[in-house]
Design a protein that fits this description.
302 residues; six-stranded antiparallel β-sheet; 2 domains; five-stranded antiparallel β-sheet; single chain; alpha+beta; DNA Primase, Chain A; globular
């Protein structure tokens, strides 16, 4: 087993194999009594979507290799890889099962979710100028059926267990529709309309994890769902689209959180942050994506 393979193992699955069970699950956040020390109130969090952990009592966190080294008092990554080799992590029934179908009102039914590996979707990610390793941390290959046909898209999970779906020919979602939040115990929060803008921000910053909290609306219609989370922060930076809907969204957030700052003027010549990253100004033709199939109704057909 190498480092890349090890990082594909879900931390929640590994902990379950070690006999460590979550005390509560809120969206993608699983809370545990720390496996690294004794405590009365659970303060050890795993974000199942990003596959990272953080122990608030120790002020320490990281990926699965960091956790294995800390739990077993190992000296290096090689020892952690040896410890993980041959393990068959399992997920208890109360966790969301990626293999379980979820039917949406649109008729989309998920059949399989895997780590990002589909060559066509990797090319699509690259066409958006997104760092593929960053995309692998936050997104999945989602395979689904619609009207009896099979398709696949890049999927980005929300806090309720639904997925945003995107490929060159289709943009949609499964039920339930909702926001995606990453709380990093920070007073600062950045807000993005969609997940491509969020991934663009990380790509431009050249980091895999933001140092502060994140809210991805996944639709401007979800802005009210984000208000409670946003109000727990004392600094908010809004990366909304440069269109009427984006401006209305910024105004709604600012009316509830007067300290919020609109960052869209920084990319005023571009519709959104991903277009800014790609250098596609408002009014310019969409760049052609190489090696793609002809448009399909609901995505890339298998």
């Amino acid at each position: 087993m190498n480092v890349t393979q090890a990082k594909q193992i879900k931390i929640a699955d590994y902990l379950n194999g070690e006999g460590v069970r979550p005390t509560k699950i809120r969206g993608a956040d699983f809370w545990y009594s720390s496996p690294l020390r004794e405590e009365k109130e659970p303060s050890f969090k795993v974000n199942d979507r990003a596959n990272v952990w953080y122990d608030y009592g120790l002020g320490q966190g990281g990926n699965i290799l960091d956790l294995v080294m800390a739990m077993h008092r190992l000296d290096n990554v090689s020892q952690a890889l040896s410890k993980l080799s041959g393990t068959t992590p399992s997920r208890p029934a109360e966790f969301f099962s990626f293999q379980q179908q979820q039917k949406a009102p649109s008729g989309i039914a998920i059949t399989k979710i895997t780590p990002i590996a589909n060559p066509a979707l990797i090319e699509y990610i690259k066409s958006r100028k997104i760092d593929v390793e960053i995309a692998k941390r936050y997104c999945r290959d989602v395979y689904y059926t619609a009207n009896g046909k099979n398709y696949f898209s890049v999927g980005f999970g929300n806090d309720g267990g639904g997925y945003e779906l995107s490929n060159p020919y289709f943009k949609g979602s499964t039920s339930p529709k909702g926001i995606t939040t990453f709380g990093n115990n920070s007073g600062i929060c950045s807000v993005f309309e969609g997940f491509w803008d969020f991934l663009s921000y990380l790509t431009m910053q050249k980091v895999e994890l933001s140092q502060h909290s994140i809210t991805v609306l996944n639709s401007v219609t979800n802005v009210q769902k984000a208000m409670d989370f946003l109000k727990t922060h004392n600094e908010i930076y809004m990366y909304t689209d440069n269109d009427d809907a984006g401006r209305r969204t910024s105004q709604l957030i600012k009316s509830a959180c007067p300290f919020a700052s609109d960052m869209s003027p920084r990319y005023a010549e571009y519709k959104d942050l991903n277009d800014f990253l790609r250098g596609k100004k408002i009014g310019q033709a969409q760049p052609k994506t190489a090696k793609m199939e002809q448009p399909k109704k609901r995505g890339m057909k298998m």
